[in-house]
Design a protein that fits this description.
Elements (H helix, E strand, L loop, with lengths): L4 E7 L3 H14 L3 H4 E7 L16 E5 L8 H13 L6 E5 L3 E3 L4 H12 L3 E5 L12 E9 L32 H4 L10 H7 L7 E3 L1 E2 L16 H9 L34 E5 L2 E6 L11 H21 L4
Parallel strand pairs: 1-2, 1-4, 2-3, 6-8
Antiparallel strand pairs: 4-7, 5-11, 6-7, 9-10, 10-11
């Protein structure tokens, strides 16, 4: 089997984000272009600004999905499935264009770590602020998969769109009949939920997640105040599926890049940081979130400086 790592990404006019991603990856991994196959499906129409081209980096560019009638999540996942089902290497990385891996030599160290620890999946989970999504399992933003443990045709990243309107209407339990609790209940539906539900609780399938940085403040949940003892008491008494804050210990941290002095200034609120083994692992810019109302030029400048600063940190201080 091909010993290279296949990276699968879906773009929608994300040429510049992918260019930065390829540049950072080449900086952190020796002989990067020889050790990976980076396949990109472009879902945007041909006349869209910043469509991916060969000038953006060492990408194998393919046509994306034509299924646009069912929304962005379905469109994205449909293209992703096509890439994954034709992958020919043992290890696969599903990576969003705007997720930047910061671990040194991750092309080699992550597959090696997975093999030594018997992991089928490794990656970064949904950020806890997205409390409706699944927890404690890698999300589609950054998910390494060992295809010797999980068959590629078993992987289906399509969302469950029929679940979107379910909160508040279910009568499965007494709590679900009360709107306050029903509106908190976790009903995962977005990209990757089928993979989670098929593999997360299988006894012979192991996974591991990095730690998202989750500061318990009003930027995450305006309706929940972690400093209020009544709010904390409600969380303590509720089952996990109704909680804003993850109950499992050490699955998130409140200390991120600034608190550890890896960056001098805080990043924009909606950007997501993650750690692994106590060091920077990933930065998710999340351009899909409210992208139209954000200042592209300002965010590009912040991103380029942050990546340069973080790359210096991780190359000077290797992970354990």
């Amino acid at each position: 089997m091909d010993t290279r790592l296949t990276i699968c990404s879906v773009s929608f006019g994300h040429g510049h984000l992918l260019r930065l991603n390829a540049q950072l990856s080449a900086q952190l991994n020796r002989d990067f272009e020889q050790r990976v196959i980076w396949r990109v499906a472009e879902n945007a129409p041909a006349n869209t600004e910043d469509c991916i081209t060969s000038e953006h980096g060492p990408f194998a560019i393919e046509h994306g999905s034509n299924e646009t009638s069912r929304g962005a999540s379905y469109h994205h996942a449909d293209a992703l499935n096509r890439l994954i089902h034709t992958t020919r290497t043992r290890f696969l990385l599903v990576l969003d264009p705007d997720f930047y891996i910061l671990s040194p030599d991750w092309v080699a160290t992550i597959p090696d770590y997975m093999e030594r620890h018997g992991l089928a999946f490794f990656g970064t989970p949904w950020h806890p602020r997205y409390n409706r999504n699944y927890r404690y399992f890698p999300a589609v933003h950054c998910m390494f998969i060992d295809l010797e443990k999980v068959g590629k045709l078993q992987l289906d990243f399509l969302p469950e769109l029929n679940r979107i309107k379910m909160p508040g209407k279910s009568t499965n339990t007494l709590l679900d009949r009360i709107s306050y609790f029903a509106n908190r209940r976790r009903i995962p539906w977005d990209t990757g939920v089928r993979v989670f539900e098929r593999f997360a609780n299988q006894p012979l399938i192991s996974s591991e997640c990095t730690q998202p940085v989750f500061r318990l403040d009003a930027h995450n949940f305006p309706e929940f105040d972690a400093r209020n003892w009544k709010h904390r008491l409600v969380e303590a008494l509720l089952p996990e599926r109704y909680c804003y804050i993850p109950k499992r210990r050490n699955t998130f941290t409140q200390s991120g890049f600034v608190e550890h002095n890896w960056l001098a200034s805080p990043l924009p609120n909606r950007w997501e940081e993650s750690l692994w083994q106590g060091r920077p692992f990933g930065l998710h810019v999340r351009r899909s979130f409210n992208a139209g109302s954000r200042d592209n030029q300002m965010e590009t400048e912040i991103l380029e400086q942050a990546l340069a600063d973080l790359a210096r940190q991780v190359t000077n201080s290797p992970l354990r």
